Amino acid sequence: MDHGRGNGAGDEAAAGGTRSIERAIALLLLVGRAGAAGARLSDLVATSSLPKPTVRRVLLALVRSGLLDQDGQTRRYHIGPEAYVLGTLASARFGIHALSLDGLARLARESGDCAFLSVPRDDFAVCIHREEGPFPIRTHVLQAGDRHPLGIGAGSLALLSALPDDEAEAVLARNAALVAADYPAYPPEVLRALVAQTRARGYAVNPGLVVAGSWGVGVAVPGPDGRPVGALSIAAIESRLTEDRQRLVAPLLMREADRLAAALAGASHTSQKPAPRAVAKARS
Predict the structure, then answer these.
(1) pLDDT (tens digit, 0 to 9) for every residue of the chain, 284 residues total?
(2) Which of 65, 67, 66, 24 is nearest to 48 (CA)?
(3) Which end of the chain is more exposed for a tag (fewer CB within 10 A), N or C?
(4) Which of these, 149, 144, 252, 253, lies nearest to 194 by C-alpha position?
(5) Are 233 and 153 spatial neighbours (Cβ–Cβ below 8 Å)?
(6) Residues 6+ apart with CB under 8 A from 53
């Protein structure tokens, strides 16, 4: 008896699935290598040597998944937000993520609450690490991989506030429709007031505007050029982030932000003065 004959259809289906995955990966890499200019459909067809209907079908699937974006005007394809999130989450062995891990552990341990690292991506902030603290009641409003418009949440608000006024206003304008639809607690006047408060006090506070009862405190981290490259934040239930406790938690965040900024600049924590926080720079 030939036991292998009955597997033909299954083998063909598996091979077809593998080919589809390989085509999607190949097109994703081609778009990524096109850089900031993006890739045209015709170029992708020519380079991949695949039929145009096949290329279009795969690209549409990648756009639906968020791995690619298509510019509405130029029709060119660009790397999408989910590809960025995956790449950022995969960068645990190097860069700001790796340099932040000890500080995040200290923040979670000393505060008892959850500590986060977020990084800016265009007009958004992406959470790339969540460190659990020992306090038994936790807020789960932010997880690694979550993405919010700049200004939404404590770390994201710290990033927005660290931008110069003209850049911050441009971000608010570009995000206006999305924020109005998905974050009704953040009308433009509220966001502008929160930015002003953040710059005045030197740290951001989210007073439960994303999810009621979940509060946060955040501080921006500047890169070597002074522009914000990340934000450290702590989130907890409302009763644990009263004004008095905010003033206790904020210095912990500032200390770790200074350490992380110094590490990013290639400086020793003990031999060089930490770089100034971006929030302070933005006030000028």
Answers:
(1) 444 444 555 555 566 678 889 999 999 989 988 877 899 999 999 999 999 999 999 999 999 999 999 999 999 999 888 887 777 666 555 589 889 999 999 999 999 999 999 999 889 999 999 999 988 777 777 888 888 999 999 999 999 999 999 999 999 999 999 999 999 999 999 999 999 999 999 999 999 888 888 999 999 999 988 999 999 999 999 999 999 999 999 999 999 999 999 999 883 333 344 444 444 333 33
(2) 24
(3) N
(4) 149
(5) yes
(6) none
CA–CA distance, 74 with 93 (Å, rounded to integer): 36
Q: Give the start-to-end residue ranges of the domains of the chain.
A: 5-79, 85-282
The span from the CA of 100 to the CA of 55, in Å, is 40
Q: Where are the alpha helices (DSSP H) in 116-203?
A: 154-161, 165-182, 188-201
Q: How much is the pTM?
A: 0.66
Which CATH number describes the domain made up of 85-282?
3.30.450.40
Q: Which CATH code for domain 5-79?
A: 1.10.10.10
- Given the DSSP bridges, would you call strands 214-222 and 228-237 parallel, antiparallel or unpaired? antiparallel
Tell me whether residue 142 is exposed, middle or buried, using C-beta atoms within 10 angstroms of its C-beta: 0 to 12, 13 to 18, 19 or more. buried
Helix (H) or strand (E) holding 86: helix 81-89
Q: Alpha-carbon distance 177 to 210, whole Å?
A: 17
Helical (H) or strand (E) element with 32: helix 8-33
Place of tokens 């992406």: 126
Q: Nearest 10 degrees: CA dihedral of 142, 147, 151, 156?
A: 60
CA separation, residue 196 to residues 57, 70, 75, 168, 199 (Å):
47, 35, 38, 11, 5
